[in-house]
Specification:
The complex is a heterodimer of chains A (169) and B (423). With 169 residues, chain A is mainly alpha-helical. In chain A, 78% of the residues lie in helices and 3% in strands. The two termini of chain A are 28 Å apart. The chains are: A mainly alpha (169), B mainly alpha (423).
Chain lengths: 169, 423
């Protein structure tokens, strides 16, 4: 029972990673293609797709936030890495556990804030571009913060467990 | 209570909590304290989707990563060597130039050390350059290209301060060339001292080197002419660069396979995502700080103590050196620039000049002991103890600091071209 639950959990984490990767790569491909198409249209045909630029900027927002979730997964967020260099392994694990759990907490606050933002936008119904309201493109905020929180939480708990067991591998 | 949470935040930042978490936490806390709903944070982050220039950042970063995986670095070195190999210390000058161009096009100087260091370090060693000199050279020259177009940090500064990026690109030319020139002179001197061999320029090698790089050489020319003539916008230049780099490296040279592209895309987006999420969080925090008139309060404090522009600039230099060695250049820009810009303007400093000061300063901070990031990247890349790199980078830092002082205290160095071209 425990084992199949664990397998299910691992499987779903793997699936999330995979979907995230595919979406991110598609977004950047779209960005390169659309941005290049726009300039070809402008220079050679003196025209352009009217919704091209706002779409590009929103693709950037999505890709940027998904890139940030990837950075969380790979532990590559920009930080001040001054003190932990000087510590022994055990201390590093303890500090990592603390910072991971704090980060999880802040991300949960950010998820709540984003949900409020979406709710307000849903009522106001401002349009981002074409007929697409802001609250639909804004869905990326709670999703991205959710994914970031998930990564911080799983790593945080692993570090807590390691700190308690006392073997920092 | 406020004081306590402030201290906790600083401690958590020093312990290595990601900066976007620290900045978001400060924004959330401060908005909570003044009774503004937390949804202001995502509202501010959403402003990223209304900043056209930002599209340039992932496109340039991606192009840079593709170039780094191809043989472009070695072709770049070959072309520079064909032209400049005759100088005493020629290879060192070649290394400087290649690093400068590569950083200008990829923006993140750590990438330069990784991509070019592995190629240049053995070459320098085989021509009998002193090891310490070679290490210092490669460590510090990673941040030389930051002033030259289409450098990402310069674009980011323009986005944050709403300064014309075209003007910044013009302003960066002379200071950027000055940095390269001073370090080149030092390299020539060192080359003479170490009696390194210099190669002769032969028309045949010049021709061969150019022919080998014939698909890549037009790209910088197109981008630079396009940007400086005002015919294409920065984001368009980025789109052209990304597209052409794919066509050239994947289609013509076939050094990067199509199947590698998704992985490279992911790698570049990890870097870009890390920058953009900090930018988003900083937009929210800046909104609070400006509303609470924090820059004005700092200004009042300063004005009471610091009268002259010169003393202010000296203080600014020291402050930015400290920031530059602690924090990565992108996060330093998004966090510090909104705070400093209004203050510097009150002291009568031109925002374009200020941008150049910021980048030179933060770039030097990258290689400043004890915690400058380039030192650790080099230590990792060349497998040398960090202490050795501290010693190796010292003479270069002395020269760079001299250049920093000239650039900071002689504003016309940055501004005269701007005034000539676009009064």
């Amino acid at each position: 029972m425990m084992r199949s639950l664990e397998r299910l959990l691992k499987g779903s984490l793997w699936l999330i990673d995979r979907v995230e990767y595919l979406v991110l790569v598609s977004l950047l491909t779209l960005m390169v293609g659309l941005a290049f198409l726009q300039i070809v249209l402008r220079i050679f045909f003196d025209t352009g797709i009217l919704w091209g630029d706002p779409v590009l900027r929103h693709v950037l927002l999505w890709a940027g936030l998904l890139g940030a979730t990837m950075a969380t997964k790979e532990g590559k967020h920009i930080n001040i890495d001054v003190i932990s260099r000087l510590l022994p392994d055990r201390g590093k694990v303890v500090i990592q556990a603390v910072t991971d759990l704090f980060s999880t907490f802040i991300c949960i606050l950010l998820i709540l804030a984003s949900l409020k933002f979406l709710r307000d936008e849903f009522h106001v119904g401002t349009l981002a571009f074409l007929k697409i309201p802001i609250w639909t493109v804004g869905v990326i905020f709670p999703v991205a913060f959710g994914l970031i929180a998930l990564r911080f939480a799983t790593r945080g708990f692993r570090n807590v467990a390691m700190a308690i067991r006392g073997n920092a591998r | 209570m406020i004081f306590l949470s402030g201290v906790i935040t600083v401690v958590l930042a020093l312990l290595g909590t990601p900066l976007f978490i620290i900045i978001s936490a400060s924004a959330l806390l401060n908005f909570y304290l003044v009774g503004i709903d937390s949804s202001i944070v995502p509202i501010e982050m959403y402003r990223m989707a209304n900043t056209p220039m930002l599209v340039a950042i992932p496109l340039f970063a991606f192009a840079g990563y593709v170039l780094a995986e191809s043989q472009a670095p070695s072709r770049l070195v070959r072309v520079s060597k064909a032209f400049l190999g005759w100088l005493p210390g020629g290879l060192a000058v070649v290394a400087l130039l290649a690093c400068t161009i590569f950083t200008a096009f990829t923006g993140a100087s750590g990438v330069t050390i990784i991509a070019l260091g592995g190629l240049l370090f053995p070459a320098l060693m085989s021509e009998k350059y002193p090891e310490r000199f070679s290490l210092g050279l490669l460590t510090t020259s990673g941040s030389l290209g930051l002033l030259l177009p289409p450098s990402l940090p310069l674009i980011l500064y323009g986005v944050i301060t709403k300064t014309s990026i075209d003007r910044l690109f013009i302003a960066g030319i002379v200071p950027g060339v000055l940095l390269v020139l001073l370090l080149s002179l030092f390299s020539v001197y060192k080359g003479l001292e170490a009696e390194v061999p210099s190669s002769r320029v032969t028309l045949r090698e010049v021709g061969n080197a150019i022919r080998a790089a014939k698909w890549e050489l037009p790209l910088p020319a197109v981008v630079l002419v396009g940007i400086y003539s005002g015919y294409i916008a920065i984001s368009e230049a980025a789109a052209i660069t990304a597209f052409c780099v794919i066509v050239v490296e994947v289609g013509l040279y076939r050094e990067v396979s199509l199947r590698d592209l998704p992985r490279i895309m992911q790698k570049s987006m990890v870097l870009v995502g890390g920058i953009l999420i900090i930018l988003g969080a900083a937009l929210a925090l800046t909104n609070y700080l400006v509303d609470a008139e924090v820059p004005m309060k700092i200004l009042h404090l300063l004005k009471a103590r610091i009268e002259s522009k010169l003393v202010f600039l000296i203080m600014l230099n020291i402050f930015l050196l400290l920031v530059g060695c602690m924090i990565d250049i992108f996060s330093a820009l998004v966090v510090v620039v909104p705070l400093i810009t209004p203050i510097a303007q009150a002291y009568g400093i031109d925002p374009v000049h200020l941008g150049i000061i910021f980048l030179v300063n933060l770039g030097i901070g990258y290689s400043t002991p004890p915690v400058g990031m380039n030192l650790f990247i080099s230590s990792f890349r060349f497998d040398k103890p960090v202490l050795m790199l501290y010693m190796a980078s010292l003479p270069f830092l002395a020269i760079l600091l001299l250049a920093l002082m000239i650039i900071t205290y002689v504003p016309s160095l940055s501004l005269f071209l701007v005034k000539m071209v676009a009064p």
